[in-house]
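Internal tracking record. Fields below are filled automatically when a chain is submitted to the structure queue. Please do not edit lines marked as system-generated. If the sequence contains nonstandard residues, flag them in the REMARKS field before resubmitting.
Queue: standard
Priority: normal
Entity type: single polypeptide chain
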Amino acid sequence: MKKFMIIAATAILATAANAAVKDIHLSGGTSTIDHATQPIYEIGYGVSGCFDSGLMLGIEFNVGGANTPKETTYNYSGDMRVGFSPIKNTSVYAIGSAMTQSYKNTTGYGFGYGGGMEYRFNNSFATAVEYKTFSMTTKVGDYDFDSTQLKMKYTF
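SYSTEM-GENERATED OUTPUT FOLLOWS
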């Protein structure tokens, strides 16, 4: 966890030094817990920046939930993104993530990874598609959590 915090702090400082773009985003998609698929929704805040070389760094914090027929699951996560911008207004990136999640009347903790692609329509609006997978651990057992989401971003 200490290494994750150091890397996250480095990403924040690097993006802040290069005219960082801040965003508020809403996302929706599907998630899978223990082979059961359900809708997932999140709201979040992010900071990212793209250097002249095309290198892209970013960090995001998300709060959300998923509804299953048996219960509602709540998620709290932090994502670090590293990627590049191959063409104007488009970024492709890898994601490293940490999450805490309520599930089966207990709290799960885990680390995950994934990838995504973002397209900026203009200086104020962007959209992104992301996939993430997590290995979660709880007191009652371990499980996998996967999500595929479409994000709509307002940037400032």
